[in-house]
Amino acid sequence: MSNVIQSTEGSFVYQLKRATDNKQDILIHFSASKFVTVLGSHGKCHVQNMLVDELSRATPKDYRVIILQPGSSEVSNALSQGRPLQELIWMSAYLISDGKLLPGCQRDDVIQLNMWPNLTRLVRSPNMCRIAALFSARPTSIELAARILAVPLEEMFQFYSAASYAGYTTAINRPTETLRLKPHRRQSLIKKLMVRLTQTG
Hints:
Layout: H1 12-21, E1 25-29, E2 35-39, E3 44-48, H2 52-56, E4 64-67, H3 73-81, E5 83-84, H4 85-97, E6 110-113, H5 128-137, E7 140-141, H6 142-149, H7 153-165, E8 169-171, H8 189-200
Antiparallel strand pairs: 1-2, 1-4, 2-3, 3-5, 6-7, 6-8
């Protein structure tokens, strides 16, 4: 059984990573009362009436992605009310990983934790503080860390996937190269009108 997820395309975290990689501001629109504003240019997000586990299960048929214009009300609201985007990416990647490595993360990576995630606000495992302490103290491979801490590899994979996607880690054994995704495309006029109709209907 493979311990690597071959593709996250179609997942919610995929949309977050596209916006982050390309510093785009987008609205992930589920309904008039449920949406997520993602400010890739500012590293902030605002989630309206949705839970993270609900977002992690979402597929493209559940939402529309709209590129936001600078100075729009959605951008202004997210700037004033939003949380760090890294937190949402962490939680989404952690849940989607479910013990497997996400694309761009390799089993033989030697990991350096560059900054601690805010573990008081994030979904986490019982050993997460110990894992973070080890990777922040010195660069360590996933398998060696699992042996040192007597932690299952699946827990290591889940931590690394979340930390990597959120930008907390560096793999020092290979050139710095992120899994860079293509930017979101602007919607056609017809799609924009359909979104407006669902918001007012």
